[in-house]
């Protein structure tokens, strides 16, 4: 299972703090090359009216009584503290094993190309770029006088070095760059060439890369973080990247902050980077507090300056009563789902999966029980994505009669005890979940829902998320509750259906549409393809889509210029935060 999916599932389902895009390599992969720096300008509409409706009634509330600010927070004059589940200490992009490490590295590194609030490409370390007419060659123009945090220059050689080592045969990280198909990369990996022919350093500020075939995610995927050749490459030997793991705890980055000290189990201390291309951050120190504890307590006592919660009216009222925090709501760019064990015979039957979708009252479980803080999901796309659509999509509204009809058609007959049977086997659903309020609600309501359609529901809850993941990977389950990582591009939301991650699912038509959508950078064309793909997956239900969450974030009223990005989290704007 993809690490980023697992780790953000832990973040979201455990009710922890959502901080930034939790991919282990912090790669963006937005669809288009639209915008002022691109050749094509197919910006289209970022989000449909349907998607916007999911975020309805967004609010922004300023702190009402700063006299309530805890003394602990008042004492901080040059430091902002944010809570984070324990990172491992591996803070170099591309070589991380934890999405929590990615939260840290998102402040230590800045990519060549980032995203604006609409999810479209935006200049990062690269001030502009060009894409060839055949969509195969990408040329990046770096800003002048870029520096790493130690003051050493950042040039096109560093970019070329980064792309090269990710195509080394010993690279075993999660980056998608090796799969994008750089011309000559296969020969380099096979030892048939000493360089990658598709990578060209034109001058110190200009580098180009040529692909074997078009890929709509290439601009930002290749425009990810840059590693220093002088630092990370001094010990590089072809076929051996083991030394990189030793350097991961001593990152040399390009971001607004640089690592000062990591104290495992306690905190990650960072200090403002005076060499940051956009200027030294306005607040000198930034700390990720990593000790386990109650997020509410940390916020109330002033131990942290920021926290995120489900946007229930109860939570909003409680946060408002604190007086010293500003509030705003947002919808993260991800979706929740029940992973299905398609290798179990009863779950491999589409009729059974559809019956479960009809038989679960998802509106009550995920929306009503959460005081409307979210909506039901039916496709593998973020509610705020430009690809989101409800046209032609089956909403699977709660209908136990329809569920019973489908189970009858699938040959499952109701036994004397009310549980359905087939070929002498009872229809049992073994559910795995992580201990949190949402899964408590799910189990309570799903127990009654499943009973009404003759399914023997057997829930199992884990206090330790990693233990749950281990059981999923061992195959001893029927359904398991997860949430995706933050989705930068529509392809991210469907990747698990084509890359072999979801065992037992292999649909050539899904793969064909997935590849077709990546072969063009025209957003309108991609929308059409994804609409067809969503209809197919909505019908087949290789996973059972559950919900979108609406979050409320609260931050210390002393912080000015605070901004939350629903795709990239805190990192794009943290350098502008100030304490008044």
From TrEMBL:
Keywords attached to this Swiss-Prot or TrEMBL record, sorted alphabetically, are: Signal
Q: Which residues form the Solute-binding protein family domain?
A: 122-491
Keyword Signal tagged: yes
The source's domain of life comes to Bacteria
In terms of InterPro entries, this protein maps to: Peptide/Ni-bd, SBP_5, SBP_5_CS, SBP_5_dom
In what ranges is there compositional bias, type Low complexity?
30-53
Membrane-protein topology: Lipid-anchor
Name its cellular compartments. Cell membrane
**Pfam family of the protein (one):** SBP_bac_5
Signal sequence bounds: 1-28
Give me the ranges of the annotated region Disordered: 30-55
Q: Keyword Signal, does the record have it?
A: yes
Primary subcellular site in the record, as a coarse category: membrane
Family listed:
Belongs to the bacterial solute-binding protein 5 family.
Q: Which PANTHER family match?
A: OLIGOPEPTIDE-BINDING PROTEIN OPPA (PTHR30290:SF81), PERIPLASMIC BINDING COMPONENT OF ABC TRANSPORTER (PTHR30290)
Protein name in the entry: ABC transporter substrate-binding protein
Question: What is the gene name?
Answer: oppA
């Amino acid at each position: 299972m993809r690490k980023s999916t697992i780790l953000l599932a832990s973040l979201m389902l455990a009710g922890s703090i959502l901080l930034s895009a939790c991919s282990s390599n912090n790669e963006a992969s937005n669809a288009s090359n639209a915008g002022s720096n691109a050749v094509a300008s197919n910006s289209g509409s970022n989000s449909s009216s349907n998607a916007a409706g999911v975020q309805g009634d967004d609010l922004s509330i300023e702190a009402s009584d700063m006299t309530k600010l805890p003394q602990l927070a008042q004492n901080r004059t040059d430091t902002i503290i944010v809570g984070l589940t324990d990172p491992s200490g591996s803070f170099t992009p591309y070589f991380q094993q934890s999405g929590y490490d990615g939260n840290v590295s998102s402040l230590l590194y800045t990519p060549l190309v980032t995203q604006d609030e609409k999810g479209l490409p935006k200049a990062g370390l690269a001030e502009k770029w060009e894409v060839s007419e055949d969509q195969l060659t990408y040329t990046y123009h770096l800003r002048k006088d870029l520096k790493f945090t130690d003051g050493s220059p950042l040039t096109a050689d560093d970019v070329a070095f980064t792309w090269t080592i990710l195509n080394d045969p010993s690279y075993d990280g999660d980056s998608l760059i090796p799969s994008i198909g750089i011309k000559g990369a296969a020969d380099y990996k096979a030892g048939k060439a000493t360089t990658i022919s598709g990578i060209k350093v034109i001058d110190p500020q200009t580098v180009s890369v040529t692909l074997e075939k078009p890929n709509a995610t290439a601009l930002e995927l290749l425009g990810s973080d840059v590693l220093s050749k002088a630092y990370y490459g001094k010990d590089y030997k072809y076929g051996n990247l083991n030394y990189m793991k030793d350097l991961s705890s001593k990152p040399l980055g390009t971001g607004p902050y640089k690592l000062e000290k990591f104290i495992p189990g306690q905190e990650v201390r960072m200090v403002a980077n005076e060499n940051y291309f956009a200027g030294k951050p306005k607040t000198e120190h930034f700390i990720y507090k990593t000790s386990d504890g109650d997020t509410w307590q940390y916020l109330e006592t002033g131990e942290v300056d920021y926290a995120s919660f489900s946007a229930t009216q109860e939570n909003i009222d409680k946060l408002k009563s604190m007086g010293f925090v500003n509030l705003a709501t947002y919808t993260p760019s991800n979706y929740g789902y029940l992973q299905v064990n398609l290798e179990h015979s009863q779950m491999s039957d589409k009729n059974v999966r559809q019956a479960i979708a009809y038989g679960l009252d998802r509106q009550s479980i995920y929306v009503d029980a959460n005081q409307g803080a979210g909506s039901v999901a039916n496709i593998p796309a973020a509610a705020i994505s430009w690809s989101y659509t409800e046209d032609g999509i089956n909403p699977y509204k709660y209908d136990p009669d329809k569920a019973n009809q489908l189970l009858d058609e699938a040959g499952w007959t109701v036994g004397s005890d009310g549980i359905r049977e087939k070929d002498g086997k009872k229809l049992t659903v073994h559910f795995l979940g992580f201990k949190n309020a949402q899964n408590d609600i799910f189990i309570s309501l799903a127990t009654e829902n499943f009973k009404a359609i003759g399914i023997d529901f057997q829930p199992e809850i884990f206090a330790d998320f990693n233990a749950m993941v281990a059981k999923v990977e061992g195959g001893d389950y029927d359904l398991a509750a997860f949430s995706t990582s933050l989705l930068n591009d529509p392809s991210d939301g469907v990747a698990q259906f084509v890359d072999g991650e979801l065992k037992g699912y292999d649909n050539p038509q899904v793969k064909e549409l997935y590849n077709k959508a990546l072969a063009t950078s025209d957003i309108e064309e991609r929308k059409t393809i994804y609409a067809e793909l969503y209809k197919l997956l909505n019908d087949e239900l290789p996973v059972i889509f559950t919900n979108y969450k609406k979050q409320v974030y609260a931050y210390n009223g002393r912080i000015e210029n605070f901004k939350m990005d629903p795709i990239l989290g805190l990192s794009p704007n943290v350098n502008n935060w100030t304490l008044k």
